[in-house]
Design brief:
With about 625 residues, the protein is of the alpha/beta class. It contains 22 helices and 19 strands.
């Protein structure tokens, strides 16, 4: 690396907390060593790429191969151990964080690994501080005891579960052994760490995130706890800044700092806040934790290890507030941070399908509408067809070289909540803040509101691209036009079955198409989405609706219109004055199977509108 030797080392640097801590230490101008297991297997490149994506160069970052489960030497080579001889500050953010662990599996990292880091830190001649991350539900006993008798350990792990039991034991072990060895220790106890306060970017999806997932998917009929249950949160960026500030702004070692936002709403209020934001109903019923403990987990759906976090306890944050004040750190507004975190959880499908263009929820035409991209100056506005959502455009967006685009899920479909407004009124409200004259690109069923908007507001857009406009194509099978039959099928359909239905056997040709169909299937499984999709299909294929749209296309729309149809799903109606392109070997979804072709047409339309406006 780097001619300058590292002055700080971070364990767990590729974890959720660790990488943000590395980022903020680098922003301070420090030279950092990140200890990673098997860095040559791509983990070092992953960390450097993540830092680069977040605007921080890795020139002052050394990546060192090590393993905190490998004994007090941490598996470091003699050369690397010597290289880290001058380290002043040691940050241990490493932990095994998941539920359902075995006791020894959890202890290996959370107890023995933490002690290995401590003992290694004790050998650094210039050590200023060891910062150890515990948790807000551990370390509450001011007199730490270690080791505990086996009978107490059995009771601890049985009562709290392996994860929380190991964090409790590890906290006590580190505090006791640090005092014995004279290691300058600071213990930091974060509450639930949520996503970045500005972007919502998350990195872990258990605990409170699972509760948000259940709220979003309609699987939260009641809340555990009481009206006063308190599950505090802290955004990851604030917590990482706090960690990075400790060596300079926490004057004495020995501190136990509880880092959380005391303004976090009580759990029922927090869930109602997020329900309103996401446009989904929040449960009203409360179930006492004691009752949930007595019921089978198969019946309640509750993970027993999460119940220990559902208390009315409050926490002493005075010492943490003093450090934050000295470092001039302020907690970001907690309700705003919660909303942005929820946006990102939904965008990334709770960690299963990271969004290419993360979005969030906005009031549009009476709907809590999921919107991504540029809301004021887009070059393109992309509207999906059925039964897809806005993720269906990711392949096309990837071909557009980051051209500004606005992507929205139709009201009541995909991730958007329903509305009583007409699709045209909803679209009018969506485009009200837009200052540019974009090209509207609408697939299948979205062609109807797009065409009507173009007729009503020709001065607001430059052109219209209709991809597989259903009203000029064969009528869908009767099954899909009968909501009582279609809705149950859509509600249960798997991603694989949906892919075959939309694209045919072997039709998914890209990761973007695969993710788009997986997203669509996931939304169809949510309450009401399949039913509303089926109702939209029935209304769209009404003969009077098809005739009205054909007449509109033939005589009223004054902006340039380009139609794209797949060779396997040709036009059967008259396209009027529109330009028509047929995509060879494509069906009803050419934007999924041939995204580069659609993107090329979009670029030509945008260039043509630019030339005509000069």
């Amino acid at each position: 690396m780097e001619e300058t030797s590292p002055d700080a080392v971070v364990f767990g640097a590729n974890g959720f907390i660790g990488r943000w801590t590395v980022l903020h230490l680098l922003k301070q101008g420090r030279t950092i060593a990140a200890v990673l297991r098997e860095p040559a297997q791509g983990r070092a490149g992953e960390l450097r790429a993540w830092l680069q994506d977040h605007g921080v160069g890795a020139g002052r970052l050394a990546v060192v191969a090590g393993d905190l489960t490998a004994g007090a030497g941490l598996g470091l080579s003699a050369a690397d151990d010597e290289r880290l001889a001058g380290v002043r500050d040691v940050f241990n953010t490493a932990a095994v964080y998941r539920f359902g662990l075995r006791r020894e599996e959890a202890r290996t990292v959370n107890v023995e690994g933490a002690l290995n880091v401590l003992r290694w830190a004790a050998t650094r001649a210039g050590l200023r501080r060891l910062i150890h991350v515990s948790g807000y539900r551990v370390g509450l006993d001011p007199q730490a005891r270690y080791p505990l008798p086996e009978a107490e350990l059995v009771k601890l792990y049985r009562g709290k579960g392996a994860y929380e039991g190991s964090k409790t034991e590890g906290d006590a072990a580190v505090r006791v052994v640090a005092a014995q060895l004279g290691v300058p220790l600071t213990v930091v106890n974060p509450s639930t760490v949520i996503g970045h306060s500005t972007t919502g970017e998350a990195g872990q999806y258990i605990g409170l995130a699972e509760l948000v997932r259940d709220l979003w998917t309609g699987r939260l009929p009641a809340l555990p706890g009481t009206a006063r249950t308190f599950v505090p949160v802290v955004p990851v960026d604030h917590f990482a800044k706090f960690m990075a500030a400790i060596p300079e702004h926490d004057p004495e070692p020995g501190g136990l700092h509880w880092v959380l936002d005391e303004n976090t709403p009580d759990l029922p209020d927090l869930v109602r806040l997020l329900g309103r934001h996401l446009g989904v109903p929040a449960p009203k019923a409360l179930v006492p934790v004691a009752l949930i403990r007595r019921l089978p987990a198969a019946l309640t759906g509750a993970n027993p290890e999460t119940l220990a976090f559902l208390t009315e306890d409050r926490y002493d944050t005075v010492s943490a507030e003093k450090v934050a004040e000295a470092a001039r750190l302020r907690q970001p507004p907690v309700e705003t941070a919660l909303r942005r975190w929820a946006d990102r959880l939904v965008a990334d499908r709770f960690g299963t399908n990271p969004a290419g263009l993360p979005g969030g929820f906005h009031d549009v035409g009476g709907s809590r509408t999921y919107v991504a991209g540029d809301r004021t100056s887009p070059g393109f506005v992309l509207l999906h067809g059925l039964p897809l959502d806005g993720e269906s455009w990711q392949g096309v967006l990837g071909e557009l070289d980051e051209a500004p685009a606005l992507v929205a899920d139709l009201p009541g479909l995909g991730r958007s909540a329903p509305t009583t407004a007409t699709p045209l009124d909803w679209l009018t409200d969506l485009l009200a803040p837009v200052r540019t004259r974009p090209v509207i690109v609408a697939h299948s069923a979205a062609a109807a509101p797009a065409l009507r908007y173009a007729a009503a507001h020709p001065d607001r857009i430059s052109a219209l691209l209709l991809v597989s406009p259903y009203f000029l194509q064969e009528v869908a099978p009767r099954l899909l036009r009968t909501p009582t039959l279609a809705a149950p099928l859509l509600k249960r359909i798997s991603a694989d079955r949906l892919a075959t239905s939309l694209l045919g056997a072997g039709g998914v040709s890209s990761d973007e198409a695969r993710r788009a169909i997986a997203s669509a299937a996931a939304q169809l499984h949510r309450p009401g989405v399949a039913r509303r999709t089926a109702q939209w299909l029935r209304a769209a294929y009404h003969p009077a609706e098809r005739a009205a749209l054909q007449a509109l296309l033939g005589g009223t729309v004054s902006v340039p219109v380009h139609i794209v149809a797949g060779q396997l799903d040709p036009l059967v109606g008259e396209p009027g004055p529109a330009t028509v392109t047929t995509v060879p070997a494509a069906g009803h979804h050419p934007h999924l199977t041939h995204p580069s072709t659609i993107a090329a047409i979009m670029r030509r339309m945008s260039d043509a509108s630019t030339r005509s406006s000069r």
